[in-house]
Write a structure and sequence with these properties.
Blueprint (H helix, E strand, L loop, with lengths): L11 H27 L3 H20 L55 E3 L16 E8 L12 E9 L5 E9 L8
Length: 186
């Protein structure tokens, strides 16, 4: 007589345990995929905010910093203080009627950007940039101390650009503009 043959295969309990373990693992993996997919737009918004802020900060930093209004004062290149201006000392904020958008009477100095804001991003020709209508941007310009320069001297300006995205998140960039040649607007 030969010993009874053992049947090969899985029992019902083993099969059920396998299904439960695989189900739990799949549920955990799907949760990770759903979270990653839901958050995949966030880096795009953050990148857009950063690009807008960098662009606006660079635009402001490229403007001249002068004691006198560059388009309205004959002493703009020689004045060493606001008292040296012939008629129009540069003040914080734009002069009457000035705008960021050209072609005439546009911002011509770093100080003109103080308090500037826009809802929906627009280029210098005042054309809305496609896909950026849900963003807002604002600029603050203030005299500040920088190394050996005192805030009262007016020789250093701190530029703060704040950009908010459609998801209500915001990013803040700061930069500096210094007066390195009083007799030159640039």
């Amino acid at each position: 007589m030969s010993p009874p043959r053992r049947h090969r295969g899985l029992t019902l309990i083993e099969l059920l345990m396998f299904i439960v373990v695989v189900g739990i693992a799949l549920a955990a993996m799907l949760r990770v995929f759903v979270t990653a997919t839901t958050a995949s737009a966030d880096p795009m918004i953050r990148r857009q905010q950063l690009a807008i802020a960098e662009s606006l900060l660079r635009e402001v930093q490229l403007m001249p910093i002068t004691w006198c209004d560059p388009t309205g004062d004959a002493n703009v290149e020689t004045a060493t203080s606001a008292a040296g201006c012939a008629s129009l000392a540069e003040a914080s904020g734009p002069e009457a009627g000035q705008t960021r958008y050209g072609p005439t009477n546009y911002f011509d100095n770093v100080n003109d950007y103080a308090g500037f804001s826009m809802s929906g991003i627009r280029d210098l020709s005042n054309t809305a940039v496609s896909g950026l209508s849900g963003y807002t941007a604002g600029v603050a310009v203030a005299a500040a101390a920088l190394d050996s320069l005192t805030a009262g001297s007016g020789d250093a300006l701190k530029i703060t650009v704040t950009v908010s995205g459609p998801d209500s998140s915001s990013i803040v960039l700061q930069g500096w503009r210094t007066r390195y040649a009083p007799q030159s607007p640039y």
